Amino acid sequence: MWTNSVDKALRDRAEAVIPGGMYGHQSVRLLPDDYPQFFDRASGAYLWDADGNRYVDYMCGYGPNLFGYGHETIDAAYINQLKKGDTMTGPAGLMVELAEQMTAMVSHADWAMFCKNGTDATTMAMMVARNFTRKNTIVLAKGAYHGAAPWCTPVKNGTAPSDRANQVFYTYNDVASLEEAVRKAGDDLAAIFASPIKHDTFVDQEDPTTEYARRARELCDENGALLIVDDVRAGFRLARDSSWARVGVKPDLSSWGKAIANGHPISALLGAEKARNAAATIYATGSYWFSAAPMAASLETMRLIRETDYLERTQSLGQRLRSGLDEAANRHGFALRQTGPAEMPLIMFEDDPGYSKGYAWNDALMKRGVYFHPWHNMFICAAMTEADIDHTIEVADDAFKFVRDAGTLPRIEKLAILGLLTDGH
Ligand code: PMP
Fold it and tell me: What is the pLDDT of residue 415?
């Protein structure tokens, strides 16, 4: 029986000592009301909340969990290095090995810099591009997430208009709007930012068209600007290379995080030869950026990426989930919009402008032991099995039935209240 009394008590205490009870993407304020806020443990494909309820977890920590929580060999590499030395006065030699391995795997990259969060890597990418071009304007896709620094955080509270000076927006996959944004940047263009796929929240996902990706490359070349692909969320989930290897376009810079050490804290900026000097002459650093244990975990993660069939596996599990859910939805008279690559699924309902069907269905799934997200892309991890997927489809079937029989659906007002459905810029 699903219960949440421990979570509720923790939330009450959190209200007093944590602003808003929780902040940022880890806040469950924008999820159905009963979604657990606090978790106790995680193993493989499963997650246990503070009340001990177990979930098949399709959020994978919002991306870091690629091979399964608590992966044996990755965590052994981490622990071994932790015992030898972690945050020291300088990096361990394995920093060089990690840079060698990542640049060998990512075809556009000749050098690597390591940092902690995805935001560090996207912010450094912007600085390298500005240093390279000695220009200021960056062109970005409207609605794309690149992190939570003042220049890119989606909620403007606490930021100054000057933090977002020198930014021009385009519509993802819309070549004419990209050209128009570049024209507006005039002779001040430093970079075009692109997400590897359109993986914005609340809207259908889109693969990049070849035409759009190629045009972004050409526009950068024509203007002496740098092309940046933000692979923080999708990196190594879609390819064993930059995600834009799928469309045959090489960026100059790419930012990475999340899955590169299967959950251990490390991110990276990778770059092409021509940006090497510009990267060497910005000042970027952090107290924990050179910690050796996450680098050891990342080296083992790279080995698994190269040597296992994790990619084909997550793709086929994702396809199995997608078709099973479609069949179950049809049986109960619902139509789903399942968009994006199957291994990074986003699942929403047709005819659900207020997200209330989605919220009711996700809530029912959660209370039956499947952790889905109603408006953010999810992730398949390599620790999931066919049995987990089939179980999920069965639970989903029951949740569809529950929503169909429920009659009235909750009104979802919390989204509008926080203004997140409005243009994030
Ligand atoms: N870029 C993308 C595409 C992301 O998905 C994220 C995190 N969700 C970031 C940047 C920022 O990464 P972090 O939260 O580690 O700073």
Answer: 66
| CB-count exposure of residue 411 (10 Å: 0-12, 13-18, 19+) | exposed
Atom of ligand 1 nearest to the CA of 144: 3
Domains of the chain by residue range: 5-62+309-422, 72-307
Cβ atoms within 10 Å of 397's Cβ, excluding its own: 17
For the chain, which residues score pLDDT lower than 70?
Answer: 407-408, 411, 413-425
pLDDT of residue 409: 73
Distance 399 CA to ligand 1 centre (A): 31
pLDDT of 264 = 98
For 72-307, CATH gives 3.40.640.10
The DSSP call for residue 129 is H
Looking up tokens 């009104």, which residue turns up? Answer: 411
CATH number of the structural domain 5-62+309-422: 3.90.1150.10
146 burial class (0-12, 13-18, 19+ CB within 10 angstroms)?
Answer: buried
186-190 long-range contacts (CB < 8 A, ≥24 apart) are 186/137, 187/135, 188/135, 188/136, 188/137, 189/133, 189/135, 189/137, 189/139, 189/223, 189/224, 189/225, 190/126, 190/129, 190/130, 190/132, 190/133, 190/135, 190/136, 190/137, 190/138, 190/166, 190/225, 190/226
Q: Of the residues 258, 266, 289, which should be mutated to test ligand 1's pocket, given the most ligand atoms within 8 Å of the CB?
A: 258
- For position 425, what pLDDT does the model report? 38
pLDDT at 424: 42
Can you give the C-alpha Rg of the chain in angstroms?
22
Pairing label, strands 226-230, 253-256: parallel
Cα 327 to Cα 339: distance, rounded to the nearest angstrom:
16
